[in-house]
Amino acid sequence: MLFKEFAEFCEGIEKISSTLELTARISEFIKKIEDDEDLYNVVLFIMGKIYPPWEEKELGVGIGLLYEVLENISGLKKEKIEDMVRELGDLGLVSEKLISGRSMLTLEVEELSIRRVREIFDEISSLTGEGSRKRKILLLTGLYGVASPLEAKYLTRLIMNEMRLGVGEGIVRDAIARAFGVGEDLVERAYMVTNDLGKVAVIAKKSGKEGLEKIKIELHTPVRMMLAQVAESFEEAIADMGKVAVEWKFDGSRVQVHYGNGELRIYSRRLENVTKALPEIADEIRKTVKEGVILDGEVIAVKDGKPMPFQHVLRRFRRKHGVSKMAEKIPLQFYAFDILFMNGGVIDKPLVERRKMLQSVISESERIRIAKQVITSDREEMERIFNEAINAGHEGVMLKNPNSPYVPGKRGKHWLKLKSVMETLDLVVVGGEWGEGKRSHLISSYELACLDDLTGNLLKIGKVATGFTDEDLEELTEMFRQIIILHEGKRVEFQPKYIFEVAYQEIQKSPKYESGYALRFPRFIRLRDDKDVSEADRLSRVEDLYQKQFKKT
Ligand code: AMP
Fold it and tell me: 0.90 cut: is pTM over it?
């Protein structure tokens, strides 16, 4: 399939806002794709993804590099290209314009296929070390060299992981179901287990319902983690579940451990392989856990018997060099609370049974533990455990249905969370502003957005400029500097990549922002780089929280 066909299709659906129509159009388009590899690539590309999230590959092309490529092709200086971004609004449209202004001599030398684009991306992603930057620039310059203006527009958006089509995972899931005549639920389940909608599409096409049903949890392929809903009260949980399995809600970071066939891998909540960053946990798991299992749990940092703030755990996850030194400074423990695989998938078994399996495969040690659990319907007992968790420096409790299966990727009613503090929002950072006076070298205010529920589009909701320490700002400025798309005086715009957890005094209706809401007195709590942008809070949650404020008063 030609990349041109893909680009033309994208252009054709760009103006469509009805999700039903988008689903129908995508379904028609993918139904006609004969080649499996093309189908795989199209399904990922249309969501602006080059690799499925858990694959240990990434393109490794930052904004700076992309600007250099565009400078090469157009002969224009970066400042001029930035002017064009200001005028046109996105780098994709700018790329289109730059290519259309290019000399005719170089046009249409080669018809670019989707496969060719994939090959070049794969080569770029495999480059490391000295000279890799130069080679990446060369490869991309070559790619744009044979691209038409429209192809360039979507190449750029793909490289930036932002297609601006309003096509989120939900739409692609439904389109696959429709194209290959299978149930949406089945596609969803297959996706939660494989984490790869491209792969799911190919299986649905080749072997339909039966093929999808056969997809099983496998060791060393991460599974989406089961999530929790907010509980209003203990009574709610008791009414819903009768007997409730109560556990501490540890203030750390979620991990999934795959251990079998001599191999051990630890995945973060974003399903990134973080094994190398957690050597002491990995070593200790080898000593205390039986092979052939997938465990779910939380890693926490503990010093002098007290948990350290969650931010420290994430610092460990990010660390690539000097890991052992960091391990001394920030010692970790792993609390296992679930098991998904024991010589085969066990997610359909009830929690009580999984719990027994968990106990049978782990012999606890100082560092590797099983989260304590009490099954009760006594409200006072629950409150006692809640207070115990808070006194021990944790967030609150998890209230789980003892009879529930493990439902990957689901934020359902089987797991409820009850925290002591007010609910915060996890929002995508889309822009910022350089500070003044002694903070003029720091980006000191950040623009935030939530997600549109279906399309995944970013909807602005406000700015946050308080709650940061100087150290936070230094660290954040360094990170955000790498992803600046645009400068506008003191204001900068970022590639959407990071999430902030933000507290606020109140949510208000406001015409000022696209979301229709604004935050009163927002305050930075922490960087949530354990969450992917697609996991930021959605508009529906903002609306819920807004409504709840009235109930309280
Ligand atoms: P939240 O991140 O606020 O949505 O809360 C859910 C998170 O709590 C999970 O993703 C886990 O990382 C964390 N957590 C801490 N303790 C537990 C526990 N005992 N069971 C399940 N999740 C837990």
Answer: no
